[in-house]
Amino acid sequence: PANAWGLHDMHGNVAEWCLDSFADYLAGAVTDPFLTGGPNRVFRGGCWYDPSIFCRSAFRYYFPPGTFYEYIGFRVVLA
Question: Which pTM does this prediction carry?
Answer without folding.
Answer: 0.66
